[in-house]
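Cont'd.
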Amino acid sequence: MRRRIGSLLAVLALLVGGAVATSVVAPATASADECYSWNRTLQRGASGSDVRELQIRVAGWVASGENLALDGSYGPATEAAVKRFQSGYGLAADGVAGPNTFNKIYQLQDPDCTPIHFSHSEFNYNCGARNYNGGKVGAATARENTRRVMWQLEALRHKLGDRPLVVTSGFRSVSCNSSVGGSSTSLHMYGTAADLGLGSSPTQCQMYHGAKSAGFEEILGQGYPNHNDHVHVGNKSSRFWSAPNC
Ligand SMILES: [Zn+2]
């Protein structure tokens, strides 16, 4: 109920806020019902789209080198990721996703189901186009792919001490990618990658090493050609980590 009241207040603020409405940010507790709500406890053996939604949100809580499958099946890897998530946020780490776990996720998610510290506006710059068009997958797929990346980054951000991570490049169309000198096979054209700038508190090497246990299979940083001013993280099926100076 508190959530609904919060939503109403936020809407009211938007209605009366006029020109300043765009600066009104709804409180995190207002998000749960608007984004996604789980209606059952999930644990090992469960399956379904609600498990997949959970997997997206704990994909950044894997062991080093692991990449959690978003298969809607609550197996040992999902259970272990949930345990790390719970432990990371001070909850009892039983690997069972119940009310406490879901309430923490509700606090962490925005109405559009992105995590509170990341948004599509950071990912869809696309050389000024402000959309997910023109990549190697359809716009809806690219957008969905970035949502997973954002949740991995939310985990990385928390593990690095809740210090801001600045996304300097997210999705890029094929032409945008080529105009900025991206690799012809760049994951940015799929929405599965992000570049993290150095204008934030964690060092380049802290982000590089931290990304290894946030589910990223592609991590490039200091000492890798053209990657001295950011850390590139991405999701793919095979591992490629390189930062010779870290
Ligand atoms: Zn990159």
